Amino acid sequence: MFDQAKTDDPPIDHGRLLDVLARADVARLMALAETLLPLLGAVEVVQSRTGLVMLPMRDTVQGTDFHLGEVLVAEAHLRAMGGEGYGMIVGRDLEHAMAMAVVDAAIACLGQTPTISAFLQSQVAAQAAADTARLQAIEATRVDMETF
Amino acid sequence: MAYVATRGGARAIDQAERLYRAELGQIDASRVDAVRRALPMLIDRVMGEASLYEPDLAALALAQAGGDLYEAVLLLRAWRTTQPRLAIAEPVRQEQLITHRRISAAFKDIPGGQILGPTLDYAHRLLATDVLQGRPFTPAPVTPAATAAPAYQPSLAAWQKAQGLVADPLRADVAPDAIPDLTREPLLFPAKRAHTLQSLARADTGGMLTLGYAAMRGYGNAHPTVNELRLAEAEVRVTHPRGTVFSAGRVKVSQAEVTSKGKSGQLSLGFCATLGWNEVKVISGATLDLNAAAAPKGSPVEEEFFLYHTEPVEASGFCIHFKLPHYVTFQSSLDALRGAKASAAPQSEQVPS
């Protein structure tokens, strides 16, 4: 289903892979989760819900941390094979959060299998390409001010 | 003020709501989607004032309120209370913002350079009336640069502090759950800085512009120049049950610093930030923050004045509550008027001609 990972691809650290899963293409992530679920055996869903995350910000003038506002998130938490999986994404897509949790649990229990690794690598590349395209458009607006 | 319960009119009330909603017609997912796609600036404004980041819900609130901003903000704030708070994210820091626009009106050559980003600042404001004649307006695509802009830009304020141009007050780290939170505690004066900035972040854009503009025109004590204005995306960094910190996604944020020459021989800075991209709001808010120090009591730039009067739900709610039955209070006023008139009238009975 996915391109096979190159054997020399190093495993992605936990924080980075969670970043990638939270931002992953939802349809492809769910497809991957479907293939992984049978490998996890019985799954206990601890949590599947929407809720709020308060987002603080640091004032640049006095360095004061203050609450900027709340962000709606979807959260999923599950246990399987003695391990646990967790997903939290900005928005209200519970299926995205659950698919993230399934993949996280699979990585915790099975490691970054070639299928998972290939998925992660493809998403890293896609997300980097999207960021680069946006930043190239932004760079086109760089201005050098001259005063007369 | 005295209130009294009233009865009656249930049918009229029901029909009045129906009449209002009939004007809006059926609201379905496609309408909400169209609102979200077509009006991103309005969505951002509503999310900022509602203090809730969720573009789909903001679009739904706008569709349901027929574009009435105060109703939309009220709907979102009310809905927000149905949701549990799951976590407090790591504080967003300026140097970690994925920056789409960053300009300074005070310094031409800022570290990292000036990036206009998405803006109409230098565009002609011409109404595209051809659209109404059946000729769609199709924007010209951006010609991307060969290289990508850096995702992160340095902090101008940090550079200014390093140069001794602005004060660099000592700061103490505060645990996320110890950050003062207006949604769970009252706003008291003199306000904590965290309360001030949170209150500005969720304040009414129009109200802030009005008061900020008053300060800009001279009813304040400091004229602002934009030190730095940023439109950016912030990562929402949360913690996995195993302790790993990760980004659950990105949200759009705006922030502005404005500056003026301070009395201490350094530059003074004012600051404001909000959810969503809303330049007028953060420039106005930063202007109010800049002017708040030593503001005279009752002036538009006094903290108590501008924080109380720019809270959109309280202000709009108080305004529109005057439409509701005030029969007891008004009757009392009438009684007082009649009493005063009777006591001032001649003792002999007068017959109107």
Description of the molecule:
The complex is a heterodimer of chains A (148) and B (353). By secondary structure, chain A is α+β, with helices and mostly antiparallel strands. Chain A has one domain (14-136). Chain A contains 4 helices and 4 strands. Chain A has helices spanning 14-22, 26-36, 94-110, 114-139, and strands spanning 43-58, 65-80, 83-90, 142-143. Chain A has a 3-stranded antiparallel sheet with strand order 1-2-3. In chain A, helix 2 crosses helix 3. Chain A is globular and about 70 Å long. Chain B is α+β, with helices and mostly antiparallel strands and 353 residues long. Chain B has 2 domains: 11-80, no CATH class; 94-117 and 149-315, no CATH class. Chain B is 39% helix and 16% strand. Chain B is built from 12 helices and 7 strands. Chain B has helices at residues 10-24, 29-38, 40-50, 55-64, 69-80, 156-162, 193-201, 205-219, 279-292, 303-309, 312-321, 327-344, and strands at 52-53, 85-88, 98-103, 114-115, 225-239, 245-261, 267-275. A 4-stranded antiparallel sheet of chain B has the order 3-5-6-7. In chain B, helix 2 packs across helix 4 (55-64) and helix 4 (55-64) packs across helix 5. The longest helix of chain B has 18 residues, at 327-344. Chain B starts with 9 loop residues before the first helix and ends in a 9-residue tail after the last helix. The interface between A and B is large, with 58 and 89 residues.
Measured as a percent range, the helix fraction of chain A is 40-55%
Tell me the fraction of residues in β-strands of chain B, as a range.
15-25%
Order of helices and strands of chain A: HHEEEHHE
State the separation between the terminal residues of chain B, measured CA to CA. 39 Å
**Mean pLDDT across all residues of chain A, rounded?**
93
Assembly of the depicted chains = heterodimer
Q: What's the main sheet of chain A like?
A: 3 strands, antiparallel
Sequence stretches where pLDDT stays below 50 over 5 or more residues of chain B = none
> Uncertain segments of chain A of ≥5 residues (pLDDT<50)?
1-5
Kindly state the number of beta strands of chain B.
7
Strand-pairing-aware structural class of chain A: alpha+beta
- Name the biggest interface: A-B, 58 and 89 residues
Helix and strand pattern of chain B: HHHEHHEEEHHHEEEHHHH
- Please give the alpha-carbon distance between the first and last residues of chain A: 60 Å
Shape of chain A: globular
Which whole number gives the mean pLDDT of chain B?
93
Biggest sheet: strand arrangement of chain B = 3-5-6-7
Q: In total, how many beta strands of chain A?
A: 4
| Distinct helical segment count of chain B | 12
- Total domain modules of chain A: 1
Tell me the overall shape of chain B.
Answer: globular
